[in-house]
Specification:
The protein has 10 helices and 13 strands. With 346 residues, the chain is α+β, with helices and mostly antiparallel strands. The protein has one domain (2-344). The chain has a 13-stranded mixed beta sheet. Helix 1 (2-14) crosses helix 5 (187-194). The chain is flat. It comes from Mariniplasma anaerobium. This is Lipoprotein.
């Protein structure tokens, strides 16, 4: 269970990384309500704990991302209290990334195909300054093989910033086997080093108390079809607000708490949850024969934080144990460069 939840959070932050069937690759997993079964927290925890993600993460994976994100903010001069401009950033990303990890650097491979639409606009409302708009859109394919990073960019840019130079380029990252040995103790350790969100998901979710909370709050359902188990976690703002004390019991040692203690901590928790104007999150795990076959996240989030409105909607899907496609045949013809992603800060 620990490894499974950590994998889920890892794939959200990483953002660039079968037995499920060829036609379903990249598709969000569905559940069949007629196959719904009742399971106790102990039964769920036991089944999820049988999945050996350390072994599975050394198999080829497909990460499919379809996200629509926006950030809107108005700037008000703190001295005059007059709004000076509105700023918005919009990103539409469609991505498919195959990843094959190994403890041998010459066996690590990444094949990533991405379509990007990015825009940044500034509308001045109380000054004579000229409005600004920059857009970047197009296709960006990225590969990693034999210690080289390759990219093939066909991007159209408006404005003053050239995000990335179009064309086919390659760069030797200089990752030797000895360097990789230090980085790659195991796939999960590599993910844990990469992800630092200030929360330990193992401690948060790998408890019977949390599983009981999810069941009682109606946030987790289980399904069984032959040897295949599907677990769906459905989190909404309304469900969280309706179960504040139970959430505190599941995540905090509340032994000896008084009503006043619950009131104080639930007030702070409610205030944090209410920063979301909308929170709808579905997470699905598909497990067959003690192996994770598919993992999916469907999200629709609207967050108002410090006058900044953040909207994120879309899906992230991970297919395990897939067949790695062939790399392009012309990688040797890519132009060698020292820093193809210089505009991105690399």
């Amino acid at each position: 269970m620990k490894k499974l939840i950590s994998l889920g959070l890892f794939f959200i932050a990483l953002f660039v990384l079968s037995a499920c069937g060829g036609d379903t690759l990249g598709e969000f997993p569905e559940v069949n309500e007629s196959k719904k079964v009742d399971m106790t927290a102990e039964e769920m925890n036991t089944l999820l704990s049988t999945v050996d993600m350390e072994v599975q993460m050394e198999e080829a994976m497909l990460l499919s991302i379809d996200l629509d994100m926006s950030l809107d903010q108005e700037y008000i001069n703190p001295f005059t209290r007059i709004k000076e401009y509105d700023m918005s950033v919009d990103l539409v990303l469609s991505s498919k990334t195959y990843i094959s990890l190994s403890d041998q650097i010459d066996e690590v491979a990444v094949i990533s195909n991405n379509t990007i639409e990015l825009s940044n606009t500034v509308d001045y409302v109380s000054t004579a300054m000229t409005d600004e708009e920059e857009t970047v859109e197009g296709d960006l394919d990225v590969y990693f093989a034999n210690q080289f990073l390759y990219y093939n960019a066909d991007m159209t840019t408006s404005g003053d910033t050239e995000l990335i130079e179009n064309g086919k380029y390659k760069m030797n990252l200089g990752i030797t086997q000895s360097i990789w040995d230090e980085l790659f103790v195991s796939p999960e350790d590599l993910a844990g080093d990469y992800l630092d969100i200030g929360v330990n998901p193992d401690e948060l979710l790998d408890t019977i108390e949390m599983m009981d909370y999810l069941i009682e709050a109606g946030m987790i359902s289980s399904y069984k079809d032959g040897s295949t188990y599907t677990f769906m976690i459905n989190i909404t703002k309304e469900k969280l607000l309706s179960n504040l004390n139970s959430l505190l019991d599941a995540t905090t040692d509340t032994t000896g708490w008084t009503e006043a203690d619950y009131f104080e901590y639930s007030f702070d928790l409610q205030r944090s949850i209410n920063e979301f104007d909308k929170l709808e999150l579905s997470v699905i795990y598909v497990i067959e024969d003690d192996k994770l076959q598919k993992f999916g996240i469907d999200m629709d989030v609207e967050l108002n934080q410090g006058g900044m409105m953040i909207n994120i909607s879309g899906q992230i899907v991970v297919d395990m144990n897939v067949e790695l496609p062939d790399l392009p045949k012309d990688l040797d013809e890519y132009d060698l460069t020292d820093s193809p992603l210089g505009a991105l800060g690399f």
